[in-house]
Amino acid sequence: MKRVALFVPLVVFAILTLFLLKGLERDPTELPSALVGESFPIFTLPSLGDEQRLLTERDLGSRVVLVNVWATWCFACRIEHPMLNQLAAQGVNIIGLNYKDQNDKALQWLEQKGNPYLFNIVDANGILGFDLGVTGAPETYLVDASGTIRYRRVGVVDQRIWDEEIKDLYQQLIGEAD
Amino acid sequence: MPVYFLKLLLTASLLILPLAFSERSELLASTEVVEFSDPQLRKRYYQLVQELRCPKCQNQNLADSNAPISKDMKAQIYSMLEAKNTDDEIKQHLVSRYSEFVLYRPEVNTNTWFLWFAPLCLVFVGVFIVWRYAFAGGRAQSNIKSDTAVLTDKQQQQLSQLLGEDDNS
Amino acid sequence: MIAELGHFALIIALAMAVLQSVVPMVGSFRGYSNWMRLGSSLSIGQLLFVAISFLCLVMAFLNDDFSLKYVSQNSNTALPDHYKISAVWAAHEGSLLLWALILAGWTAAVALFSRSLPLVLIARILSVLGAISVGFALFLLLTSNPFERLLPMAPMEGADLNPLLQDIGLIIHPPMLYMGYVGFAVPFAFAIAALIGGQFDSAWARWSRPWINLAWVFLTIGITLGSWWAYYELGWGGWWFWDPVENASLMPWLVGTALMHSVSATEKRGVFRSWTLLLAIFAFSLSLLGTFLVRSGILTSVHAFASDPERGVFMLMFLAIVIGGSLMLFALRGPAMQKVAAYSGWSREVMLLINNVILVSAMTMILIGTLYPLVADVLELGKISVGPPYFNFFFVPLTFGLVVAMGIAVFTKWKSTESRLILSKIPVPLLLAIICGGVFPFYLATDYSFSIVAGLTVFMTVWLTATIAVDLIDKVGTNIKRVARLSYSYLGMQLAHTGLAICVLGVGLSSAYDQTRELRMAPGDNAEIAGYTFNFSGVNPVAGPNFTAFQAQIKVTQDRRLVANLYPEKRHYNAGGQVMTEAAIDPSLTRDIYVSLGEPLTGGAWALSLQVKPFVRCIWLGAIMVGLGGLLAATDRRYRRRKKSQTKPAVAS
Description:
The complex is a heterotrimer. Helix content of chain A is 40%, strand content 21%. Chain A is built from six helices and seven strands; from the N terminus they run H-H-E-E-E-H-E-H-E-H-E-E-H. Chain A has helices at 2-5, 8-24, 75-89, 103-113, 127-132, 159-177; strands at residues 44-47, 50-56, 65-70, 94-99, 120-123, 139-143, 149-154. A five-stranded mixed beta sheet of chain A has the order 5-4-3-6-7. A two-stranded antiparallel sheet of chain A has the order 1-2. In chain B, helix 2 (39-51) runs antiparallel to helix 3. Chain C has four domains: 1-166, no CATH class; 182-403, no CATH class; 426-482 and 490-513 and 617-625; 515-614. Chain C contains 20 helices and ten strands. In chain C, strands 2, 3, 4, 5, 6 and 7 form a six-stranded antiparallel beta sheet that branches. In chain C, a hairpin with a 2-residue loop joins strand 2 (526-529) and strand 3 (532-543). In chain C, helix 1 (2-30) runs antiparallel to helix 2 (33-62), helix 9 (202-233) packs antiparallel against helix 10 and helix 14 (388-409) runs parallel beside helix 17. Chains in contact: A-B, A-C, B-C.
């Protein structure tokens, strides 16, 4: 009986090692959104290129959309942009959230690099970004037809991320919407 | 004429103002970067920014972080404090957007019971061990002959010989 | 060429480590004394070759050999020479080589200074240390080779050393810390050798004690230096963040402290035997675990280290073998725990038990808090953070309990103490502590308010120092010459405990009375904090050897007398483009004035952080006294006596 107690440290260590092994596969910096499963926050913000037009959450429409947070000051957005163009060409609905940016620079960017967005929400002060829990750019949210956030990506969406993490969910949501 | 006069006045004031300003600022204390209507709010503000984590940084609280996101969050905390929100409301407001990750003091709930209660249990176990060894010893001691169970006098002697014993405790 | 020489020397060192781990061990079982004796020569040979390898890397840095990937990533031609040398251990690969060098150093020291030990024991100790060396040399050669070349495209210029690290702190802090971490490999090896031989007695405890003390002294000083470095370098005025990297160093320290105390009971009274063994295993295991946590990138830390999952897997395998293997050995061969105690009431043993219970509880709490975010993530409970509010919540009351127990412990004797004796000593210190704790906070606070934190802090400090003083007076009496008759281990203990009292004072009072103001100041503006007047006269551009900076001038006066001229900077490093805040500090024993320059605001104004931190110096002053106390105890006469052991080198089972 007394000898059994001597095994306690070993058992505790074995359990700890299992957790550490599992933990190695995870990225501690990756943060899930607090808003996955919640509805898209309400907002009233101008549209890029047509500042008189005020957009609200209703403008997302009853469709599956990607909401992409971007800015001209964001270096990684440069890398991400061609992928967004490609997705838009495939018929994916993408809505831009121009985050803490200047309108003229943003319009110039779209002119030069192509415009994958259905429209762009101007969030110059980061108000909507704050309600969305945005920590930086680029970030991408997948919103279903009922206006509920289903997925969030912090960082660049590239081909690998699209194939591995988004595509299936996107197709499934499209299916649900039909 | 009035226009010319105005220009002159403006130029003069531009020249004099900085001087006047520096003269006055000798007397005036500088202002807080974040200025509150009530010193009590300032205290709560510092408390909150110490206890909340910047979601984008490498383990930094909002107070120490200069990341844009922390600035936004600090501004939010400031305006919510001025709008008379409670600390809990402010925390909840941030948690609903940035998840529980921003709380350096994790909430006590089913997910964290182990975190909060395991150390407490540990202390109780420790108290029990000490109590058992020290003060329940009287009962236990009747079961053994004496402390020679650990080291016989002869062994102690051998040990002293072996080590050249000298101790003063 | 030099790099290849270093690489080759490392391979030879590995070969020697392999021999060192196998030959003496086999010899100890077969009774071949020649094989056993080979252990010391091999360990000295190993040290020689690791040292050659290390020197080669130093040479590569001094010669700006940017064809080495490691050099090109961490150095630059403009870097001053002393930083080039310390840049050797500024990142993962080189610091691991320093680990290996220090391990080889400790091993050789054991071989040289433990000749009086039974041959079987020393052979096994060296063999265990050799096995650990094998692990580190393999880790270096397979996953983290600092001698890797960037050929044929060698860069002309290096990327520069992280500016945070261009500091005296980097020169002294990591070597000290590693001396402590790696030093615990020695008691660990003693424990494993004892478990293998099944011989674990008071003699064992006495032999391992000075090594435990020495490793612990280095770790104490290393942690202290790290805290002091973070305080002045990170620019926020914080000195402890409960960050995973800091916790990784505090855990082995707490266990090492517990070990130091329990081994004294094992030596003197033969008690806590399996517990002492377990602590010796834990202390080194936690050092390894800490290294794993820091370098695998499994947790996020403010003191970021380049991380690599591949290395993480290797380290975890190494951990599993070393820690798992030793705990298995402990489970199979550890001495059965004594069910009944041969001590009772307020004995020294019970006080040491209380000490151990508190220290190990504190360590476990920190371990749980540090790893819980990871565990929660793996169990899909969501990402959570565990930070200072959690750790302080448990650590502060535990420290209070520890300090109270320490005060009582000085009066206790082995086996049992008459409670009458203790009760006769306690009233004076207790009364003194209560009075000072109740009165001083009013005097210390600028607004004459009472702070509970300050009250408890003063209570603890006075209680501890007063009990120590009472005990010293008891022992010395009126004849001061009698101090010379006290043993070094006794004086060391009292010095360390006094150091802790001072450290507690610094921690408590600096948190209770810290005054921090974030101000917007235009040139000419004044601010008044804690009776000091800060006058900001503006910001000038200045140039350093490898950076340009904005430098603010702040004149601090008190009652119109000049206290200090402070020049905090915001530096922009040329090579990497990093921006760094360089705080300016006016230190003194009773308070630090800490000023750091923030960002430019509109209208020529700047954001400035002005802090007055009462007694913050006492934290490090006290901690250094704690370390010196440990050092004094380690040099006690009875450890220095190296009389040839009378036991015959018996062949163990």
